[in-house]
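Record type: monomer structure entry
Structure origin: computed from sequence
Chain ID: A
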Amino acid sequence: MTHALRDRRPLAAGHRTLRATTVLWLLATCIGLRGADTPTPFDTTKRVAWTTSQVHGTAEPPAAYHVVRVYPKLTLESPVDLRLDAASQRWYVLELNGTVRSFPVQVQGVQPQAAQKPELVLDIAIPGLPERVRRAAYGLVLHPHFAENGQLYVFYREQTPGPPRTRISRFIVDLREPEVVPRARLDSETVICEFLSGEDHFGSSMAFGPDGFLYFSVGDGSGYGDGGESGQDLGDFQASIHRIDVDHPSRGRMYGIPAGNPFTERLGARPEIWAYGLRNIWRMAFDRVTGELWAGDVGQDLWESVFKIERGGNYGWSILEGTHGFRPERPHGPTPIIAPVIEHAHFEARSLIGGQVYRGKRLPELAGAFIYGDYDTGLVWGVRGEAGKPAWHAQLASTALRIVDFAEDADGELLLVDLMGGLYRFEAEDPAVLAAAAGHHFPHLLSETGLFASTAEHRVAPGVIPYSVNSPLWSDGAAKQRFMAIPGDGRIENQGDNGWTFPQDSVLVKTFALDLEAGNPATRKRLETRLLHLVQNTWHGYTYLWNDAQTDAELLEQPAGLDRTYSIRDAKAPGGVREQRWHFPGRAECTLCHTMPANYVLGASTAQLNRDQDYGGGVVANQLTVFDHLGLLAHPLYGQPPAQLARLADPHDAHAPLDSRARAYLQANCAHCHMKYGGGNAYFFLTSTIPLAQTGAVNLDPQHGDLGIPGAKVLRPGDPDHSLMLARMAALGPLRMPRIASNVVDQDGVALIRAWIAAMPRQ
């Protein structure tokens, strides 16, 4: 008995324990292919150490750089933009809720005491207004002569009873007493520019160019597909980058139109436009050496793009998405389309964040490279462009950050801004780490992982633990088997509502199988086994594809994943056969669901695991009780029987309350994105522990288009036909939610959510 098993109580009375497994293994083998519903025999009486692991390191060599947090004691609430005042050596940070805060620069690695709690400079919230009249801020910039004039500009959106509007406003910061914390009064606001903001994609990046003029980006304002066809239209503010003179207003405006703007003489064109055909430039920046303007454009269906912005440039949206056709039949703008310097498919980037051209000294090998990242995957790249084409391009780092901004300090060194509240800088990876990884062999076959005693029989190695969940993620009707493998005597930390925290080198395993004849488990075929492996506090995902003989599975190497189509015999289908497409995910795709705010491991949580598990041989026991008995939990359950702990309902249990079933379904299928910082950019939360009235979804106006449903809300109580939540569940293609990992509508899930919404009192 290991140390971890000392002083453990026996299982509760009434549960049979499994003492002899050999006969059961032989029986299971004789039956044939072990279906995903067949319990894996497991001895619940004692913990057996998992000692056979061959899953070490990662399948890719370490990135050349990693990120290190700076100002570790600094507390920020959803920072979105960071700017430096070099004269006073203070950072100014904009938070999503409209507050601007300031703190002194860290000098020689020493964090000033004042930086532990940033000082409030400005709050654009208007006291006393109702919740539906709210402001959200997205962009911040300081005037080039900020030290003299104190001019600070904020790009924000105001949700009003009428059409939402976007503003660029100037506020004056009082800098007269350097020893006093700078402050800006709300009544110092001057609205420089205001325009209708549309449903989504507001842009928000602002930068003063080498010419002293203010450049700012505006998105297409459309929930989907550039519905207003603004991309190629020079007659509105949308889908463009603008250049204005904020120091010399012209008649009727709070700004001037600089000489040299490309479309000032074109009838019907907005004179402010500098470049157009851009879906949603969230961040852009000038190269402090060359003066070139670089930008990252957030794509829609398939492609994200990096552009070098030129005067009068047309970047193709929405005729093209990157270099690929989107709506080629739409009218073209007056200038030729310019291709991106580089583009990324959605398997590695979903929400591209433009960065900065590196001009620092710490990392000379990156000099002149435009450094940018992705909000969803946390990946970071660098690119150098010549004549509009990439001369060099490389992935630099793989992070767990929600990257929203790259800031440049006085020396040209870069800081990454994480929406979850942290600031980070790049560090070159230790050469010893890189050298050690060069000779590392990551298992190419599932049989090489040490997870299975017999891969062909799908029989796990000693110490690998089967588990199940209360509310499974919909996976296009596939059956699933789940296991967790914890090295040695490692223990799990219980982290409350979100996923548990596991010891290093733990592996979570899930095998997917399809019935080739609908409803007949005897025809079940294994498709893939996915692994989540924890290394250096980061979970890495891998996909292994099963061979046709069902004897082993091979590591998927394609970054974009792989699609295959299977013929399913189904009496309900025309001709008795239907085709089902299955997507095998690439590695970067795993991060789109396994998000940091959800603590990455979605099914391994108290509420999901608080249920009975069939351990084979007639042994049925509560999983939490078993884990506690085996010494798997760092914080035992003594005094807390499972009945008193959180538990999700089974969405398919007709005896459970309708509300509990529906909320559990949304928790499993939606909440990993629709939670704070989860990546869902429609601003409502679906975590089951939040009261429905506080989720923000009830009677929320569409934020990504109404799908052609007049009067639609995200969730309209008592009216499922006008609830976009339901409409997206029932859709396929780019309108579908969940947005990835599914090509088949969950009809039972749709019926459940429909009944739930219909049962709500109308409001």
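Annotation 1: Confidence is low (pLDDT under 50) at residues 1-37.
Annotation 2: The radius of gyration is 28 Å.
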